[in-house]
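An instance noted here:
***
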Amino acid sequence: MNALFNLGNAPRRPVFAAVALGLAAAVSGCSDTHVSRASQPLSRQMLALMETKGVAPSSPMLIRGFKKESELEVWKMRPDGTYVLLKTFPICRWSGQLGPKRREGDRQSPEGFYSITPAMMNPESHYYLSFNVGYPNAYDRAHGATGGSVMVHGICSSAGCFAMTDAQIADIYALARESFAGGQRAIQMQSYPFHMDARNLAKYRLDPNMPFWKELKKGDDHFEATKREVSYAICNGHYMFGAQAPEGATLDASAPCPSLKYDAQVEQRAAAQERAEKAEVAEIVARGERPVRLVYKDGAQNPVFANRIAEVSHPDALVPPLEVWMDSPRNGAGAKSRKLAARNDPLLVAEAQAKASAQTAPPLSAPPAPANRFSALLGSF
């Protein structure tokens, strides 16, 4: 990436003001076109929407992404400190499979909790506008993940990023710019494989990524219970949601966790959220929901963009994902996953009870790929 991402996270208010102006004075060689893009005012429609939600342009924001549904949510903070959903943006293109990003070049859009700082905003992007999501974070690095420069950007071309339309990224960039100008030091981005609801948790319960997803689910539970930014620590190779390290303590993501602090009331509410979800999952499984794994050719896009093939990257890969039944007797990997999961997951007891009435079905076949091709743009994000 260019030198923009080496500016650091300076704590003083003038840095936020510089970001709000598109960093015009700080970035050399920035064209008038790029500056004007980065400094576009919020639209009347967006301002009106914020007024109806009771939030100000300068209030902090939070981002939540969901790969399977191809949605990017922007939340804004209300005066009482809780967040309200401002707008859901359909994602024009993401790439790879459901699951975390592991290495450079795997085309995976990452999953986890990330922090976006003012220095990660890129008004010079060759992809209209962009900002870095902060991959790899301490959790990713603790698990040996490699790579970087994972962005939310325009142009609708993805090789591991979250690609939006130019109009969408203009809105999202402006919202982030105004939040930074209001004093927000970092925007939390929560990236999930799918909406962490009972139906998805039941359907994908035997996916090999489920242990990781259950960990992310705890973060989702904390957010749903409080509608506040989720505090977390990363130690012992895990996210510890709702936790805060003691003052002055230095955390090592790979080392054992020190004594962490928790808010008892928040933990009770998050635990209640988790219990309710588990009960609903068990009920869905008992009704015979079969476990599947989704296999994509290379990511997906929101259905609202289905007729805009010409502008997206790798349109030939935009076919419905293959659903692989994980409980098929012909699927050795599925049987092994089920046996291992049964040792640790009481929800699978309900599945065993429903097994007698389950029908064995072959994997679904994907339709033929479209004929069109898209030449990926070159240059920095």
Observations:
- Confidence is low (pLDDT under 50) at residues 1-31, 340-381.
